[in-house]
Design a protein that fits this description.
Number of helices: 10
Radius of gyration: 19 Å
Number of strands: 10
Order of helices and strands: EEHEEHEEHEEHHEHEHHHH
Structural class: alpha/beta
Strand content: 15-25%
Length: about 260
């Protein structure tokens, strides 16, 4: 991975992936997207890693969206019609397919594509000074590529207001909309993120992996299809080593010793 644009660090049972462009408000370009994807691959291959923490360098921005400056590199608006899959789409799909829970450590503003990155995470803890928004409509476009993840996180009327007006919301509003799990002062951000990651590490990694696959699949199903899928997945879960260990540890009144096999 690109150690200049994106940093990777192991911390306790988590992998910390940091967008390292504080001077550009951690703007997203093709190199950053590739670095985040590489970090996810590295974390998934580590049998002791239980979660991924995604954050930005500095304290101004989690990610301010696509790199639109004069010296931009890999702007999300560039499309190669011979290979039309945009790098933002590739990254969001990779995050959606990740078998580990992704926790957003929101150290500052999350705007446009950066807001999409936040919505693609499974959980989020934010500083109370951060602001959030999709300003695309005010420059003649629409937050098209991040809409699929926004639709899964934000109630429709709030989503419509954010997309159409382009106005920003504060951290407490974002928590009320269901975008954030927790809002804390900057001094408490790391301790709250570590507290959440430690709670994740107590749960079965196999159960989480299979559960994340199921959650993603059910999002595109009718209620009837989702119930049939759930019925088929239950015996898959109960046949795993972690399920056997979970039942056994419950009966023996002890903490479970989960398997450490990396996801296939």
């Amino acid at each position: 991975m690109n150690d200049e644009l994106v940093l990777f660090q192991r911390r306790n049972n988590s992998a910390v992936i940091t967008i390292n462009r504080a001077e550009r408000r951690n703007a997203l370009n093709e190199g950053v997207a590739a670095g985040i994807s590489a970090g996810i691959e590295k974390a998934e291959a580590d049998p002791e890693c239980r979660s991924i923490i995604l954050t930005g360098a500095g304290d101004r921005a989690f990610c301010a969206g696509g790199d639109l400056g004069k010296d931009k590199s890999g702007t999300p608006f560039e499309v190669d019609f011979s290979n039309p899959r945009n790098f933002v789409v590739k990254l969001l799909k990779r995050m959606n397919d990740c078998r580990l829970p992704i926790i957003a450590r929101v150290n500052g503003h999350a705007l446009a594509g950066g807001f999409g990155l936040l919505c693609a995470c499974d959980m989020a803890v934010s500083v109370d000074t951060a602001r959030f928004g999709t300003p695309e409509s005010r420059i003649g476009i629409f937050p098209m590529m991040i809409l699929p993840h926004m639709l899964r996180v934000i109630p429709k009327r709030h989503l419509m207001e954010m997309c159409i007006t382009g106005e920003q919301i504060d951290a407490e509003q974002a928590r009320q909309y269901g975008i954030l799990n927790y809002v804390v002062p900057a001094a408490e951000l790391d301790s709250k993120v570590e507290w959440l990651a430690a709670r994740v590490a107590l749960s079965s990694p196999t159960g989480i992996r299979i559960g994340k696959i199921a959650l993603s699949a059910m999002g595109g199903m009718t209620m009837e299809q989702a119930l049939e899928y759930a019925q088929a997945m239950l015996p898959v879960l109960t046949s795993t080593d972690d399920a056997s260990e979970g039942f056994r540890s419950f009966q023996e009144k002890r903490k479970p010793a989960w398997t450490d096999a990396p996801p296939s």
